[in-house]
Automatic annotation (TrEMBL):
Keywords: Lipoprotein, Membrane, Palmitate, Signal. This is 17 kDa surface antigen. Coiled coil: none annotated. It is found in: Cell outer membrane. It holds the Pfam family 17kDa_Anti_2. It is a lipid-anchor.
């Protein structure tokens, strides 16, 4: 019986993904489908009878929406461009810009001056990433490791 429920949730998710696919790339479609499946499974754990069916439906829709948003965000190539720009910014102390011509995403990494924390040298930084022209800004701290690499500390 439980397998049948998961199968039904999967079919709903695939249907949602197929319906919502107009204008979406494979990452976004995959995120929508996987999110719908996970949301449906999570929703099926609540309530009983028709309440469980409603919870499953709501979970499927919420999961699909969340998965869709995640699918729109940075792909592997974007993350590599960001990683390379971050490394250069941490190494040199100079602001670094990056751009992925394939996805159209771009950003900037702005490092602060280096300071010593224990045995490590660290830099606070600010990064702004533009996804579909919308800026998303974050801050953190990166510290140089004994092997020369930089690790995001927070």
């Amino acid at each position: 019986m439980r397998i049948l429920k998961y199968f039904a949730v999967g079919l709903i998710a695939i249907s949602l993904g197929a319906c919502a696919n107009s204008g979406m790339g494979p990452k976004q479609t995959g995120g929508t489908v996987l999110g719908a499946i996970a949301g449906g499974v999570a929703g099926s754990q609540f309530g009983s009878g028709s309440g469980r069916l409603i919870a499953t439906g709501i979970g499927t829709l919420l999961g699909a929406a969340l998965g869709n948003n995640i699918g729109q965000s940075l792909d592997r190539a974007d993350r590599q461009y960001l990683h390379n720009a971050s490394y250069q910014a941490f190494e040199t102390g100079n602001t670094q810009r990056w751009s992925n011509p394939q996805s159209g995403h771009y950003g900037v990494v702005e490092p602060a001056p280096v300071y010593q924390s224990g045995n490590n040298y660290c830099r606070e930084y600010k990064q702004t990433i533009y996804i579909d022209g919308e800026p998303q800004t974050g801050t953190g701290t990166a510290c140089r490791q004994p092997d020369g690499t930089w690790r995001i500390a927070g």
